[in-house]
Every structure is written in structure tokens, then in C-alpha cells.
Amino acid sequence: MKEGQTLWTKEQLILAVNLYSKIPFGQMHASNADVNELAGLINRSQAAVARKLGNFASFDPKLKERGIKGLTNASKLDLEVWNEYMENWEEQFFEGEKLLAKKKQTSVEKVYQADLENLPKVQGQERERLIMQRVNQYHFRKIVLTNFNNRCCITGIQMLDLIVASHIVPWSKDKGNRLSPQNGLALNALHDRAFDKHLITVTEDLKIKVSPQFYRQKDTLSIQQNFIDYDGKSLLLPKKFFPDTDFLRMHNEKFKG
Length: 257
Fold this sequence. Notes:
The protein is mainly α.
């Protein structure tokens, strides 16, 4: 460590990895507004926060596969915080949001006031659970859509009102990966429905696979244009978090071939 530098605390690292999860790889630079904001909150320079995001990128296996190495000199504590976060998205992301709100001298409820409207009037742990669920659902959508550049990863449609953050493994089937961006695809509403019903799937090499059931109606123009024309084509690639092959394999197993 250079003279005058101070070690990062675990709290600071949690806030940094929370930010890492929210912004695309190409925006992790010192001039980014979110990087600037976090730097001020934790009394670090913008450059230091950007470098720390680069350290976290060095742990990302999907970036490594693409030849993106991130920054070297990550610490053992960096790796510890990264593993804790990536292995338990649901709880760790919300804890990061609570910590961020505290740094801003407010609360999660105030930050997400509009998104928490009509919350059932319960108290204690049940209210905390419902708040966590609502906040996490909001950010799952935001992270997944950002990951695919706010476009449907099958058609390229960029109308946000028509795009769904679709789970590869359903919300109810894998609690630990409900919020993992590697368990999400940005799909337009029609293809989200077809994906949910296993009429389309995505192979482990990120190819779109369409059920033979559509070919029985190939003379219907909308079936041809919306499904058959995409059969075998490549998924539009994400910016950072790639779909987990295990999740894709689980979805493939239920595909209606």
C-alpha cells in the first residue's frame, strides 16, 4: 500500500460491490455520476472507487472468458466480500441498499417510497421481508435491463414498457438466485410468456431454440416472424453478466421439443 493510502473497510467494499452490480462494465470510470456519488459518501476519490470496481471485475468469470481481466492487486477482503455478495444476492443486495441509504442519512423506505406504495400494513420482520422483496424486484429488473442495454435480447426491441426481466429459473424455484443477474434475460412480453411456458429456450451457447409446435402453424405470418425466424439465431449478448449455463440447462430440460 502506498504512503498516505488507507485500507478499504468491509462496509466500503459492500457499497462498492453493490454499485458494481448496478452499472455496465463500460461505465465503471471516474467520471460516472454514480461513482462520483459513492466516492463522496465513503470519503474516497473517484479514481479509487473506479479502481475498486476494476478489482471486482477481476473476479468475474464471464468477463475472464471474454478476455477482460479487470484490475490486479485485489485484496483478500475484496474476494471475501465478492463471494458473499455473489452467493447470496437476495440478502446481500438489500443490505447494501440499506447501508447506502444510511450513508445518505435516510432510509430504504424513503428512497423507495414510490415503489413501496400499497405495502400491506404489517410490522416487524414481515414488513422488512416485504420491503426487501419489493426493493429487490425493482433492482432485478433494472440490473437485467441495463445488462442487455435496455433491449429485448431476442428481438432487439428497445421499448421499455414492453420489456420484462425474465427469470431463467423461476423465482419460486431457487431462492438463492432470485436476484442474480445471471438468472435473468431481458425479453419482450410475448417472448417472456413463451419462455415461461418453455416454448422457446436459450441453449448453453446462447442460441435461441424454438419449439416444433410453432412449425405446425408456420403459415401464420405472426408465428413465422415472431418465432420461427429467430430459431437458431444468437442471443443479443449482455454487457456484463452472462446467463449462467446451469440455469440455462435447467430451462432446456423443460423445453417443449
